[in-house]
Amino acid sequence: MGRYALQRLIGVIPLLFIVSVLVFLFIHLIPGDPARLIAGKEATLEEIQGIQHQLGLDLPLWKQYFNYMGDLLSGNLGQSIRSGLPVTDMLASRVMPTLWLTLLSMAWALVIGLFIGVVSAVYRNRWPDYVGTLVAISGMSIPGFWLGLVLIQVFSVQLGWVPTGGVDSWKSYIMPSLTLGAGIMSMLARYSRSSMLETMREDYIRTGRAKGLRETVVVGRHALRNSLIQVVTVAGLQFGFLLGGSVMVESVFSIPGIGRLLVDSILYRDYTVIQALLLIFATQFILINLIVDLLYGVLNPKIRYS
Amino acid sequence: MPDNSIGMGAGSGSSLPLEAAPARTAGRFKAFYRKFRKQRLAFAAACFIILLLLVAILGPFLTPYNPDTPNYDALMQGPSAHHWAGTDEYGRDIMSRLIDGTRLSLAVSLSAVFIAAVLGTILGLLSGYYGGWLDRLIMRGSDVLFSFPDLLLAIGIVAILGPGLSNVVIAVAVFGTPSFARIIRSVTLSVKETLFVEATRSMGAKDSRIIWRHIFPETVSSIIVNVSMRIGGAILAAASLSFLGMGAKTTEPDWGAMLSMGRDYLSIAPHIVYFPGLTIFLAVLAFNIFGDGLRDALDPKIKN
Question: Do A244 and B284 touch (CB under 8 A)?
């Protein structure tokens, strides 16, 4: 296990390197000259050259990458082209709303998803199973932005129970987290159903029943606990995907998080901010995958790494 | 997948007498149809998809009104006998725009999945057949793509290429490719070891012939299943990008773009948002259920 962990940790380094190169190249991959795009259509040649110099685009590519990495390692993500603010400052105020949103979404998705999955597995091929499957497959198919707008229309506009957007109180997070968690909930429901069904076939479950344990004990204490490990692992892996979904949900509910910042920066062509966000998202996914991989080994000793 | 009784069986291709092949295909299709027909929900979904395709093809003949003609006497009207789904902020008939938009929305997602299937299949075949550094390169590449959430990857690609529907197709195709590459690779790996491939090789067949005439047919059922499973996600992704203003222009009758426009009128005319959203939901639901059913009917690994 120790050796495996070390291998995985070392394996992350080239991946991070590739990501940093890709994100660095991002500004060069945009069709056309980025300096010209930033300067606008009516800019003079001097203005464009000024921006090129400011961004260091007139240096050789390897030198640009070197400078970029130097800045990065000293915690400097550059300045927003649009507002001139340091990107790190822009990010700092936007991390918390996104973090709250994703944590809340994951929490309810995990609880409800597990519940539906367990009920479906226990009542396999009977009506609770069919209802559970229908809920799960609907949750997977529903467009998040539409669900969000329908919730706003019903609960904010019609009933006035919760605010339409923003992050002024805890109430503001109810609808966004419901919207964001729906897809993950469905996935976890389906996954925990199949995981439970698999566990219920194990010998120790038969033993439990044979020695006269009540069905609730068999299901709750033995089957659920053993399939929980796998479900939690999958939930962890999905965390990154929640961050992806937050882009959409934050935009629907006007939440000032990093997802919304990404959409705004793309629409306003604020390339330095896009670049920083892509780097942050990518690094986050790599680290989450790493943590889940390592946790999986700790939680499930049957897995052997070679 | 060598013992697949429904998919393309081992040895299909040149080793069979020519006249036997169509009969076998027909028999297999019958067996598949019998199995698929039993899943009532999936069968209903298939019927709905056929209906959607017909609407996409016959669109212009079905629209009750011209989808692009504004009518300033009928702005933002709710559903009525004249306008089943109401009218939008320019007084255009929403039903007609939804019908007209079916073609655009399906074309975007189907072409994206088709491109992903072609690219992924080629990569998967090469990766599985040749192995070695090529395999490692392709698989590490798909690992990198896989580690990003679909939507975020698509947004990143659109950020580079710029907004527009053709770039949405590229973005959705890129994030679909690794799943095909992985699945086809694993099928290729198992087929590569079978006796009939070894026999063909010992007869001096070239690699390209072995891959295309003998291994590729074995992968077809996996490709079909994955295509059907991914279309729903592709429709969702394309609609999401259009909703964020990165896909279809707001003038185009795209489902996602219609919804995005209606957003500003949510409090006074919610039907402008409800109907396009419901259409996207039903289409995605149908493809997801259909994909599930197809997998159960085609995949020999899943037993009831």
Answer: no
